[in-house]
Amino acid sequence: MTAHRPNSAIVPIFVLALFANAALIFMLQPLFARMVTPMLGGSPAVWNTSMVFFQAALLAGYVYTHLLQRLRSVAFQAAVHATLLLLAGLVLPVRPTDALGAPNVQHPTLWLLGVLTLSVGAPYVIASATAPLMQAWYARTGRDDAGDPYFLYSASNVGSLLGLLAYPLAVEPLLGAKTQGVSWALGYAGSAVLVVTGGVLVAARALPVTVVTSSRDAGERISWARRGFWIAAAAVPSSLLVGTTQHILTDVASAPFLWVPPLALYLLTYVIAFRKGARAPAITLLALHAASVAMIVAVPSTRNIVVDVLIRLAALFTAALVCHGALAVARPSAARLTEFYNCVSLGGVIGGGITALVAPVVFDRIAEFPLALAATWFFRPQQELEWKPLANTFLLGGIVTIVASISGWLPLRGLSLGILSLAVFLNRTRPWAAAPLIISSILLVDALGVSGKIIYRTRSFFGAYRVIANARPDGTANGLLNGSTLHGLQWRDSARAGRPLSYYAERGALYQAVRAALPANRPGHVVLIGLGSGTMACVLRPGDRATFLEIDPAVEAIARNPRLFAYLNVCPRHTEVRLGDGRLLMQRFAPASVDVVLGDAFSSDAIPVHLLTREAVRLYMRAIRPGGALVLHVSNRHLAVANEAVRVAAAEGFAARYWRSPSAFVDRTVAFETPPSAAVVITHTPATMEALALPAHWKAAPRLGGQAWSDEFVDVVRALREAPIDGRATRARGNKS
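The structure corresponding to this sequence follows.
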């Protein structure tokens, strides 16, 4: 037995290798998504699709490990792995490939998956194999704890968690995108050396497979039902992770500091669930899980984005911990370790893939989130039902509330939601009772919680859209909603169909800015980044030319459908719609060829930050004639966007003015006319700004400290906490056309 005495250096090398490798692979996710997100309009779907890709790559790495274990010699395994680590590293440093050309907005998912595969697929797959491979090697060391190496899985997840957190807190603020790619390549090389060293140490003293695997372990039979449980217990929280992230990104911004919290909490649940001595979920956790989900039912949305996000993160954390706790209890012996990890990884791919890739095609609304939330109920351990009479009473009350809401007898708000949430909590030990209530209440809020009748729904890679018919005493107006934000509004009667409403109404900041920037003695050419319902066509004068740059074909289809909106028809200016990312399309305009550029491309209330950087503004100003202007729509409920626009203008040496127009009480339909709106106007010189003859209430931009946003530096946290210069008075759910 002396020949197989474990080397004392094995443990620190294994721990360091697992930690470094896990940190690297999870740092790569936000790093590469940060690089590729601007290429697809800053869409939140870029991050979710990327997460699914990385889950699939993780599965490929686990399958590779499972196959590699069929080689009985650890030395041979280490040699094969070292060779593949070297070959995979040939695609580094990290950068998006240009082999597939410009982004394909007709098939964005396929284009993005192709770019991910060619750019980082190989190093990620091989690096992701490290955790199960080194655990399998550890089982061959002969150490006292070699029979249960699952604690290393928890250690690996600690590295993943810290690597993930390090990106928005340290890497992104300190390093530019190119430097990040090179630094990751260097880290990959260092990690590879540690992994190969660990393999060499084990190979020198490895126990034979027949010694490591006891007769009981070797004969352990795994049923397909048990494998199915592993897959399902991993799939449900993975789906919930993608759904929760989508909600957060849609209403704020698609940026790393918002990508990370949901994924970090998700990884933390793995750390907790697979720690040494972990047991089945405790009663306290089960109660918190039920309470957090019941809170989502009771408060489907708030006016405070922080509260909104915290409620959903609490539900994600407790639900994932319940599922992963059940998964940890059901794990097999070390002899079946790689098979177990394959099933867990497959479940992650299935759950994330259904939510990010399948759901946008199958559902015309966000239905996958409540489905996943309800499914977590089936992984709770069996408990006795408490307060049965009370639980039965509220269960009946919840059913009556759902039926009454569907029938239109009872509004689904306040007391109704309170009854449903209590019914969910009190019936937390009855999954077949609580799950339907969760699904029904969330979907009904989506269907009934709007002012007006939903007449059209559609969904794409870039967002979920609803067209609402708003009936008023003096007529009906259709509104376009993406997420919680209004992107356009139009009267349906022919007499008023050409009247711009919402943010583009005559008394609003955008109307004033665009009209002031148009040339007085000839027709103007305006480029508009973002189409919405096409309202801008009716802001321009007869003879003016409008070129809309719209990334989502679904939005163009809505704007051109006369049953929904008719701005492009009733105001037949010289109008053209070009599909693609606004910034990429702007590169095709000749210098000094347009009079006005209007930047108004938003997904719900989220900012595509790549459209507000120094490089982006420089590109816009290059296309604008000397006497023209850039108009940036900076209305936002959560972020001080005006501040960042002013910083960028100052850094580039341009003149800037801003104004937030108040609500104008014009008539009974004031909500359709001019809600508060904010805009920043940027010109090449102060003299050009004076020549625009903007009204006196347009203020000169103040000097603000801090670094301006650029392609290398974006600080969304600052925009979230800083007081806006335009005096935003409310965080209420507002309009955006």
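Confidence is low (pLDDT under 50) at residues 729-737.
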